[in-house]
Amino acid sequence: MNEKKMNRMKELVTTLNSASKAYYAQDMEIMSNFEYDRLYDELMELEKETGVILANSPTIHVGYEAVDELPKERHEKPMLSLAKTKDREELREWLNGKTALLSWKLDGLTIVLTYHAGKLAKAVTRGNGEVGEVITNNAKVFKNVPLSIPYQGELILRGEAVISYSDFEKINSGIQEADAKYKNPRNLCSGSVRQLNNEITAHRNVNFYAFSLVKADGVDFVNSREEQFSFLTRQGFDVVEYRKVTPDTILDTIGYFEKKIETYDIPSDGLVLTYEDIGYGQSLGRTAKFPRDSIAFKWADELRETVLTDMEWSASRTGLINPVAIFEPVELEGTTVSRASVHNISIVRGLKLGIGDHITVYKANMIIPQIAENLTESDTLEVPKLCPVCGQPTEIRQVNEVQSLYCNNPACDAKKIKSFTLFVSRDAMNVDGLSESTLEKFLAKGYLHEFADLFKLSRYEQEITQMDGFGEKSYRNLMDSIERARNTTLPRVIYGLGIENIGVANAKMLCRHFQYDLEALINADLEELSAIDGIGDVIAASIYAFFRNEERMGQLRHLMQEITVAKEVIEEGSQTLAGMNFVITGSLEHYENRNALKDVIEAKGGKVTGSVTGKTTCLINNDTASMSSKNKKAKELGIRIVSEEKFMQEYLEV
């Protein structure tokens, strides 16, 4: 029996560590939180029964090793995990008659901030609890982190960096590629906090909520956690929302948080209970992994049993085919749900799914529908050998221990959907009223085969006006938008064609180089394309191959017959910034934003890049004396730092 238990423990350790590595180090999810917690609890029970804890057990290791891209630093005090429970009565008993603070357990990235002499000196991620990554420059651009505070001693505190659900949705809505969209706010926050370029972090609206004070010498907190929170608030920090509780009030207070999470904009995956009496909490000591002064409460997921009725396989532009479970509708957390993403083949196989299986479903963090468990485990679901869209063979690929399904057919109509979505997007032809779902319907009905067909949709007026979601008014608005799109510019057309590696900036640069002559661009050879500054061999090969494809060229000729491209006139001597590279950082006074200044520079033949290199002509920054990373880099390389005013005088002759 012990041998059987030991083998099971080894199996659980391997499975849980793989899931932990994917989650913490690669920002990927190969199993649900529900499944992870279930396996973790099983492992802990086996360790109690056998008295054995394996060296690499997740019950004695915290998190996962930090990645190598950022400097690492050892924490002054180890950052331990918290013991967890889903039992409300257990939480009340844990109080042992004492008063405590009940607060949100936020779902983001834990950060340690250090202040010296009232200034932010250092920010380090949690990492593996012992060693984290130094992200000081990124923390300085969090939306609500004070750079200076009244307290002049050494202050060390911990908190959670988070991105709100509303900001998460805004950021995702600006990403055209479905496969490129972020899976959840935590993954987006993790990637934002650990950027090498803090300019990216600054645009992600990262907020920081303090939840623990580690050190503040010389301050009398009268043995009170609440007084520590008040002190941090006085220093300018946002602290995590909390309520003081006793055994008599804790259940009602949990109910308050439970109600609030339904509309709470900040990701949270539970609550944390910490003794108000600091001395009492510290006197309890710690286990090998957990402090005894705090405990985490995770929501007992509302589970509903239902029946899996179908598996929908959704193909995308990149060829990735995502499985989506369809089940008999159930009520969860106040809404009716009937479908849930299964993410990839690894999870499909792990759940041993089959049509007709009885499954339990829940909402992760009370929001995202997920399959918790397969009660039947028939394991009869067939992974499609043919793409559900084009009927061509599929392939299972494994990347970072995760298996996913792909369609290899470059002419798959699913890929056309994404191509058309790009073609009608704001930076391309800018056609309002054509969502991805509408394009999918038009493609399925055979209305669209190539881009030129978009301008011939009037042939299907009767059919379109009778489609769900369409009427005479919607149809007319769409036709008006398409008519407006007939008059466009060459950079919009080039970007909209979807040439590999060609974004908005490269499309503009190509058009300027060839003086807005499409034929010159089409006929350019590899050598000429590669010689263009900023293009290089790889991008040049993409452009060259695109214009050597007979089918694509035929479609481009058809498109050009349907549209009118505005003639760009390049005044002689106007390209005064040709061959120059600029970097813009900080706020501007004379231009609405950096993009406005970028447009002016590009119109004069210059190029704007995101980082300072040896090829940079000058760095434009109104705070020329700042100690920002870009300013430091410019000084190291001997690159001039000029104010906006100086740039306008010297380069624009304003």
Summarize the structure.
This protein has 654 residues and is an alpha+beta fold. It is built from 24 helices and 24 strands.
Overview of the structural elements:
With 654 residues, the chain is of the alpha+beta class. The protein folds into six domains: 2-50, Orthogonal Bundle (Helix Hairpins); 72-297, D-amino Acid Aminotransferase, Chain A, domain 1 (2-Layer Sandwich), CATH 3.30.470; 304-407, OB fold (Dihydrolipoamide Acetyltransferase, E2P) (Beta Barrel), CATH 2.40.50.140; 413-485, 5' to 3' exonuclease, C-terminal subdomain (DNA polymerase, domain 1); 490-565, DNA polymerase, domain 1; 581-651, Rossmann fold, CATH 3.40.50.10190. Helix 12 (413-423) crosses helix 13 and helix 16 (490-496) packs across helix 17. The model is unreliable at 62-67 (pLDDT under 50).
